[in-house]
Design a protein that fits this description.
mainly alpha; MetI-like fold; two-stranded antiparallel ribbon; globular
């Protein structure tokens, strides 16, 4: 019985130790942050926009501006994901640098990264343009990493027989991407896209209005509206802003995400059709529309065929894809030498700035890291406890998903930072109330990464395996142990990596709260980063940010990355 469901590879994974690439990548990140800090010192003394109006009539304009920023950031995120993840998954040498770099990038705290980006751009761009670009970059950093990890995980876990079939048919890179890799990853990419938009909404308030010492920025948008309403304690405006956000989320669910999920159901790896396929009224309307059919027959299909012919003619299948690279080795060596020299110089200057930090502040950073780590671990364990059963229920039951999925999207997309002041008022009087509130806010920024990845993993379980488990009359415990959990394992690790980074990022707003001219804080690295940002203490900001990055990267390398390798080697569906 057990052998019939043994469809996952069970070879022992090769552990990947910390390599020279990790050190180089971390050093490069330190130099990058140092360069941003140096540029920010020459930024203009103020970066102000128009005052944010809390009138209801301003909401449509603000919502439209926020949607445009979110769409621009998502487009940038998807382009980055496809290129970066594909390169890392298909080039062993590049993977040694790109994956450690991705660990570093997703662990850089977003809210400590924004001041560096904004002040650096303000030194070289007009003020309003710098604020807009910085806002889009901030939203990009909340959307891109989980998409990239998902795409990379999908490419690394494609069944061997499907790869061999693409080789037998002599597919070039384009045909393999179009017919195998994108279809195989479609369900996971769509669910992570939903999560990326939710993550973007979560940090939208911080991306549109914030203060750094005597410098500030106010961009017209829904996030700025909610932030201003929270600062003024205006319940009516907060309710209006959240209502507008809910309407946007429902519209996106019905007009974008649910049609895409119905369309992607055809790409599930199974030999039997599901007895409860997902449905969408808008998808059916588009599929039955004569105009869409005419556009497909006359424009899209011919254009796609011409693109296929062009790429097949110009990029044929090569038996030796690495051939010819030795011709460019001198160029690569020269570039590496110049980059290494620049890296060493930048590291020297960054080290000089870090030497300005007194020993007492380094001790505060160490204690703050320990305190924040315990809160992150608590939030992650609580999230795992409820997201796995609920995610499996949604991913395997189309009727349940039809009404619960929009509710989950709404809950995930409502910025917790908009509700946090009111939560804080309720908990602040309790023993350890600020600690409880901090863990709760981290949980609100963590749990959705896990939930959406669990849903994607459960939805991707082949229907024939479900029927096999039913025919064998496996009890619930055996079904979870032999089918559900092994199938979910790669998705759980992907979600856990993104969730861990989200919890560390959320610590910045969870551990230091400023409301109506008063501030409250608890010990943690997030509080140190926020305090350094508010005070314009750039050496402390750099030291605390790098310490958080190093901690998260070590956790990723020693824990999550090994589990990633385990998922790739032992739990690939074959």
């Amino acid at each position: 019985m057990a052998q019939l469901l043994r469809v996952f590879k069970t070879e022992q994974p090769v552990q990947r130790p910390v390599t020279w690439a990790d050190a180089v990548v971390f050093l490069a990140m330190a130099v990058f942050i140092y360069a941003g800090v140096r540029l920010s010192l020459g930024a203009p003394p103020a970066v102000h926009g128009k005052a944010i109006s809390l009138a209801a009539g301003a909401l449509p304009w603000y919502a439209g501006m926020s949607i445009l920023r979110m769409a621009a950031a998502y487009t940038l995120s998807m382009l980055f994901t496809l290129v970066y993840g594909y390169w890392a998954a298909n080039n062993r040498r590049a993977e040694q640098v790109l994956i450690p770099l991705l660990d570093v990038l997703q662990s850089v705290p977003i809210l400590s990264f924004l001041p560096v980006v904004l002040m650096s751009l303000s030194a070289i761009l007009p003020q309003h343009a710098a604020a807009e670009v910085a806002s889009i970059i901030l939203i990009f950093t909340s959307q891109a990493w989980n998409l990239t990890f998902s795409w990379y995980q999908s490419l690394k876990t494609i069944p061997t027989e499907l790869r061999e079939a693409s080789t037998v048919f002599r597919f070039n890179g384009w045909m393999r991407l179009k017919t195998l890799e994108l279809p195989f990853a479609a369900v996971s990419l769509i669910w992570n896209s939903i999560m990326s938009w939710a993550g973007g909404w979560f940090f939208l308030m911080a991306a549109e209005i914030f203060t750094i010492g005597h410098r500030g920025v106010h961009l017209p948008g829904l996030g700025a509206y909610l932030q201003e309403a929270a600062n003024q304690g205006n319940m009516r405006a907060t309710a209006l802003g959240i209502s507008a956000l809910v309407l946007i989320i429902i519209g996106l669910d019905q007009l974008v995400w649910r049609p895409l999920l119905v369309w992607s159901d055809r790409f599930n790896l199974e030999m039997l059709e599901s007895d409860q396929p997902p449905t969408s009224w808008f998808y059916e309307a588009l599929r039955n529309a004569r105009l869409i059919g005419w556009l497909g027959d006359r424009i899209f299909s011919p254009a796609g065929e011409r693109l296929d012919r062009f790429l097949l003619n110009h990029f044929p299948m090569h038996d030796e894809p690495g051939r010819g690279h030795h011709k460019h080795r001198p160029v690569y060596f020269a570039l590496a030498l110049l980059g290494g020299l620049g890296l060493l110089y930048g590291a020297f200057r960054a080290g000089q700035m870090l030497l300005l930090i007194p020993l007492t502040q380094w001790l505060m950073i160490a204690l703050g890291l320990g305190a924040t780590f315990l809160r992150v671990l608590t939030a992650l364990l609580i999230a795992l406890a409820w997201t796995v059963p609920l995610g499996v229920a949604i991913g395997t039951n189309a009727r349940l998903a039809a009404w619960l999925q929009p509710l989950v999207q709404i809950a995930a997309s409502i910025p917790a930072t908009a509700l946090f002041p009111f939560i804080l008022f309720m908990l602040i009087g309790l023993p350890g109330g600020l600690n409880l509130a901090a863990v709760l806010l981290m949980l609100m920024g963590t749990q959705w990464y896990l939930l959406f990845n669990v849903i994607a993993g459960a939805a991707a379980i082949p229907q024939d395996l479900k029927y096999t488990a039913a025919l064998l009359q496996l009890n619930r415990k055996d079904r979870w142990r032999r089918l559900t959990l092994p199938a979910l394992f790669p998705y759980l690790i992907t979600g856990a990596i993104a969730a861990s980074g989200g919890a560390w990022n959320a610590s910045i707003v969870a551990e230091y709260v400023s409301l109506r001219g008063q501030s409250a804080r608890i010990g943690g690295i997030g509080a140190l980063i926020t305090q350094a940002t508010v005070n314009g203490d750039y050496p402390l900001l750099m030291a605390s940010t790098l310490s958080m990055v190093l901690t998260v990267v070590l956790i990723n390398r020693l824990v999550w990355r090994r589990l990633y390798r385990l998922a790739e080697k032992s739990y690939r569906m074959e």
